[in-house]
Amino acid sequence: MKMLLQQMKWQFILLARNNIISISIAVTIVYALVFFALEGLDNMYKVLTLLILNDPAIIGMFFIGLTVIMEKNQQVLSALFVTPINHHVYLVSRILVLSIIGWACALGMALAAIGPAFQFLHFSVGTFGICMLSCLAGLYLVCYTLEFMHFTLRSIPLLMILINLPLLNYFEVTDIRFFDLMPSYGSLSLITHSYSEEVKVSTLLYGYASTAFWISLFYRMVYHAFMARIVNA
Amino acid sequence: MKQLINVSISDFKLIFRDASLRIFLLLPGLIYLVVNLFLPWLASRFEGVDEYVAYVLVVATLETTQMFGFIYSMVLIEEKETEVAKVYGVLPVSKTGFVLSRLIIPCLITIIITWILLIIQPFYTLSLYASLWFSILAGFTVPIYTLGIAVLSKNKMEGLVWIKVFNILVVIPIVAFFVPDSFTFLFGIFPTYWFFQGLNSLIEGATFFWYLLAGFVYFMLLLIVTARRFSKVHFA
């Protein structure tokens, strides 16, 4: 636990040095100002959901991949893996730190857009779930390409499939049941139902269960790929 | 001049030597598909989409600029990281001229892509000349975007963070269409506001000249500032 907290501290420092934290705060402030400007807009909840699913997800997927690429290029990884650091600690610390940043940005946007009138727990689990899934997808991708441009190019379609397909049903462009089984659907459902006054317990349970299931599965896949292709490569 | 044109062409070829980057060339096709097929389908299927078509078109025109902005800013940051920029710095050519010459081809391609988009979109009949002027204005965003990111970023990670910021800055003036009229001009601080408002006026058949002029003046000033700043910091 101590090692995890220490790693998280260093990750926060690293991200702060690369301006990721300050710029994420600035971007959230810009979004907040836009939400104030658009006050009273009919589809505010939908705009908020769209931004939450994309902006914090981008933070997670892109920056976790870039962190690994940078560490690899600067020979940090090879040095790190001869220390007694646990590989789970390495992965979890990076995922948690970026998810915390993504969650904080999403929370800032929600407060600006709709005020405190939402279910904090459902919203937090939903946004954290999206951020963690995105981070895990980014980590999985980086196991297969450590070249910056390749990673960036491949992450765009991955992000669109992972995050945006379930949104098509949400925006009523499609009505495809398969999209409801996708990894990000559970988190999307928790976020959208955190604004609703009446929610079925079964819907919430499905949201929580789906989020937990996909994060566990993704983590397992990432860990195996990471060990095989980066640590033991 | 001939030397700079040669640099411009060879630089463009070098960038797309990496096969993975060629996929970016599909992006204009994707934008054409969205505007010419997907958007009309959406408008026919869902009520209320019609009133947003002009705004989608206005944003779509600037999306191609971001494609080249992304590629070239990453190339410039890599030059900085690998210290190749220092070698360029001792070449017997004007630094500003050298930098701008490298951005001429993406700028021209962006103008052509934007112009074709405005001509072939199925919703409005727009004047060819006026569309060309707006396409040229859209082309100006490529060097500003690219140089701005390259100046602000020390490495690719920072570059990606700034790209995220720049993407928002480019698109955010669209909000001006949805706020009360008295607040609209507050968005004038964002350079693309003048482009968006002007193009929307063209679509609506209203006067667009002053927006276009203000856009050109603003973009030229930004281009001069970013090019100068870039020449100072990039080759050092």
- Low-pLDDT residue intervals, each spanning 5 or more residues of chain A: none
Unreliable stretches of chain B (pLDDT < 50, length at least 5) are: none
C-alpha geometry of chain B: globular
How is the main sheet of chain B built?
none
Rg of chain B, rounded, reads 18 Å
- Average pLDDT level of chain A: 87
Order of helices and strands of chain A: HHHHHHHHH
Classify the helix fraction of chain A into a percent range.
Answer: over 70%
Overall number of strands of chain A: 0
SSE class of chain B: mainly alpha
Strand content of chain A: under 5%
Number of contiguous helices of chain A:
9
Total strand count of chain B, please?
Answer: 0
Helix count, DSSP H or I runs of 4 or more residues of chain B: 12
Describe this structure in words.
The complex is a heterodimer of chains A (233) and B (236). Chain A is built from 9 helices and no strands. Chain A has helices at 2-17, 20-37, 44-73, 76-80, 87-114, 120-144, 148-170, 185-195, 201-231. The relative contact order of chain A is 0.13. The mean pLDDT of chain A is 87. In chain B, helix 1 crosses helix 6 (95-102), helix 4 (53-81) runs antiparallel to helix 11 (192-204) and helix 6 (95-102) crosses helix 12 (209-234). Chain B has 236 residues and is mostly helical. The longest helix of chain B has 29 residues, at 53-81. Chain B is globular, with a radius of gyration of 18 Å. The A-B interface holds A 18-20, 23, 26-27, 30, 34, 37-38, 41, 58, 62-63, 66-67, 70, 148-150, 152-153, 173 and B 18, 20-21, 23-24, 42, 46, 74, 155-158, 160-162, 164-165, 168, 172, 175, 178-179, 183.
